[in-house]
Design the sequence.
């Protein structure tokens, strides 16, 4: 059965620089193809700079700034990776606050690669099991989380369903799982 995401609005939260292109475009296209409305949320208006590893690629238009975003307006949140993206985003109080608000409201979240740094910054990994780019293992453990080396990890032990993956090579599993979780409305049974 194909998940129907019609009527759902998904926030993709990124910084204005350094987003891993595949980790934005692939989930964006997948969720949109299932009927979801996808919205790019960033600290500043204008555009964001996409990257392929360390090389600049395309630019992508911002739909809404994090300071104007309201968690009540979204059904789920996706945090694409990219080392520069995640490092900048975790220092933006409005972005971290928005993500925390989404979690507190029980909204499902998809987080890939370096993006769990934002969760660490927001105090959102304690007693949760997640995966990420391997260099974040110590950060996640120091923040009270359990790190696993898996293609995709689904954690239901917190206020929301958290879907995490390690890298662009995991995007098939990440996207399929994210569609399934969001399509089931992120019901963690909690």
Sequence:
């Amino acid at each position: 059965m194909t998940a129907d995401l019609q009527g759902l609005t998904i926030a993709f939260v990124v910084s204005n620089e350094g987003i891993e292109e595949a980790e934005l475009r692939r989930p964006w296209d997948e969720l949109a193809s299932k009927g979801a409305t996808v919205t790019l949320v960033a600290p500043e208006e204008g555009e964001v700079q996409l990257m392929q590893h360390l090389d600049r690629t395309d630019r992508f238009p911002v739909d809404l700034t994090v300071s104007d975003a309201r968690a009540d307006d979204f059904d789920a949140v996706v945090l694409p990776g990219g080392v520069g993206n995640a490092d900048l985003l975790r220092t933006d109080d409005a972005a971290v606050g928005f993500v925390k608000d989404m979690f507190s409201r029980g909204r499902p979240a998809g987080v890939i690669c370096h993006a769990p740094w934002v969760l660490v910054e927001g105090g959102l990994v304690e007693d949760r099991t997640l995966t990420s780019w391997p260099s974040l293992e110590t950060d996640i453990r120091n923040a009270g989380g359990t790190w696993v080396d898996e293609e995709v990890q689904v954690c239901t032990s917190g206020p929301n369903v958290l879907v995490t993956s390690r890298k662009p090579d995991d995007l098939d599993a990440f996207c399929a799982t994210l569609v399934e979780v969001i399509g089931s409305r992120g019901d963690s049974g909690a």
User: Anything to note?
Assistant: The mean pLDDT is 95. Residues 9-183 form a domain with the Rossmann fold fold (CATH 3.40.50.880). The two ends are 25 Å apart (CA to CA).
